[in-house]
Specification:
Length: 245
């Protein structure tokens, strides 16, 4: 009898400890996003081999910083001590499958390097005091790259200047992406005609004056033309911060 009681007590203790561990672990899994991309996938690729697959972003660098630490695939520290959270995306937390691959990817492009930031004008920081921003490396949007590589999931928390579904290439979330805009959209090989006063970029969700260099750099297959500012706004596009259309 004595022996059985001891057994029951030790079983209960094990059970209580077990439940405690499970609840602590689940508190750190964030949204639970995971992926099974091997962490060695990018080892043999140079940064430029990866960057060259991407178009230059029309996000505007507002300031620069040197990355001194990569916490995980969506959070870094700058030399100023500032903590930056990549806006619009979420990568696996520590202990979740895919954590190392996402973190390695960001380290490859950011650690001990000078990076550009486009801070979210609609919401500068989150409740933890982390700066919310697009991280720009060699003219490319690293938040967008994380999504397109499958290393991050979209985490859209309005209000936000940025619309990450566009970066993910998820056309089902692009407002009216496949509608034709009256007669303002020209045939790309017609070479003539009014191409509209404004150029939208369906990848970034921004629009520009047709004289803006960032508008002109927009890849043909991402271009949408508008005749008026109101047309662009009503289609869900955000004005470029450089040309202020
Ligand atoms: Zn512009």
């Amino acid at each position: 009898m004595e022996f059985n009681k001891k057994h029951i007590i030790s079983l209960l203790i094990i059970l209580i400890i077990g439940l405690g561990v499970i609840s602590i672990a689940s508190a750190y899994t964030g949204t639970g996003f995971s992926h099974n991309i091997p962490f060695s996938k990018y080892h043999d690729l140079s940064n430029s081999e990866i960057l060259n697959k991407y178009e230059d972003t029309d996000c505007h660098i507002e300031r620069y910083g040197v990355c001194t630490q990569v916490v995980d695939g969506d959070t870094i520290y700058l030399d100023s001590g500032e903590k930056v959270r990549f806006v619009g995306v979420n990568t696996p937390e520590r202990g979740v499958e895919g954590y190392i691959a996402s973190k390695n990817f960001v380290q490859k492009f950011c650690l001990n390097k000078k990076i550009g930031l486009d801070v979210d004008d609609s919401k500068h920081s989150d409740k933890y005091g982390r700066t919310l921003a697009v991280v720009i490396v060699d003219g490319k949007n690293l938040n967008e790259m994380l999504l397109k590589e499958g290393l991050a999931e979209v985490m859209y928390i309005p209000p936000s200047e940025f619309y990450p579904f566009n970066w993910a290439g998820d056309s089902t979330h692009i407002p009216n992406s496949h509608t034709t805009y009256s007669n303002t959209q020209t045939d790309s090989d017609s070479g003539s005609g009014d191409s509209g006063s404004y150029i939208g970029n369906s990848n970034s969700g921004k629009f520009h004056k047709n004289t803006c260099k960032w508008g002109q750099k927009t890849a043909e297959h991402n271009r949408v033309y508008f005749n008026s500012r109101n047309d662009a706004i009503s289609q869900g596009y955000q004005p470029c911060k450089v040309c202020n259309p």
